[in-house]
Structure prediction request, 337 residues.
Amino acid sequence: MLYPLLRSLLFKLDPESAHEITFRTLRQANKLGLLKNTVISCKTREVMGLRFPNPTGLAAGLDKNGEYIDALAMLGFGFIEIGTVTPRPQTGNPKPRLFRVPEANAIINRLGFNNEGVDQLIENVKNCDYRGILGINIGKNFDTPIEHAVDDYRIGLQKVYCYASYVTVNISSPNTQNLRQLQAADALNQLLEALKSEQARLAQTHGKYVPIAIKIAPDLETAQIEAIAAILLKHQIDGVIATNTTISRSGIEHLPIAQESGGLSGAPLMQRATAVIHQLHASLQGAIPIIGVGGIQSATDALAKIDAGASLIQLYSGLIYRGPDLIKETALAICNK
Ligand SMILES: Cc1cc2nc3c(=O)[nH]c(=O)nc-3n(C[C@H](O)[C@H](O)[C@H](O)COP(=O)(O)O)c2cc1C
Prediction:
């Protein structure tokens, strides 16, 4: 209820500072016992072999290093995805690299996987109390040549395997040069073959099967989506997350800020991301679960993702514009459907 007031204050700061101040304060408040746990009564659902207490999760990118997990858990998420994390720490692109588009309830970012590296993320996970579902999203370092991308993902998978409920393979950020080329058939086949065999080896070693989800872009033609679906089926991938941010400026082309390069998220992405879920669902026929993300700002948006074929949803930009109430609102709408 207080969020509109808080938002008007935070929106006076530059977006990256506002982000840091908000989540550091939230973490501190939680440490001092000042946060009340948000309880959402919902029937649990099984997806990727995991039991989700409610269907609304946190999307990747908000907590890249897993620094705020316990505080975020108090907000009522059914699951939390941290990352994208790369094998080595990297600073990301030069600032400014994060822009609000308040006229359109949207965000443009070209952060470029700024993160403290996988070893630090694991330390943070080890030190948290959260025992709910934790996704860890892995990527490649910007200076690893795309021909060697498989090596970075293999390192990421190996390192996070024991600490993740599921691992997301991010091949769809628009801010790492050539990353999206990994969505092309040959590259994707090669990557998934390597990761599935590593997953089988790790499952044997650790006596625990950790599902792998692939996160895809919204900027794909129908034929490309069909080709990706066929490859996911061939390799028996456990889940697919649709979608990442878009390079399109459709819906905001009239605004000067649309000139900024990077991925667009929030309301202008809603329809396109839902269409991708629809097309994926048509190809996958329920054989691989879909996690729907992109532009969700209301219960109606969340239900549209489920109607298109998603089993779970994730939020990012909607949290910035609508605040944490959106978590309960979307979870209950889906649970009571
Ligand atoms: C500032 C920002 C940073 C992001 N960083 C990542 C990231 O590191 N990895 C990733 O897979 N997605 C990342 N995303 C994409 C989100 O997880 C999500 O897929 C996308 O924003 C669409 O959802 P939304 O419209 O609810 O924001 C980022 C999004 C934003 C706005």
In short: Residues 145 and 178 are 9 Å apart (CA to CA). The chain has one domain: 3-335.
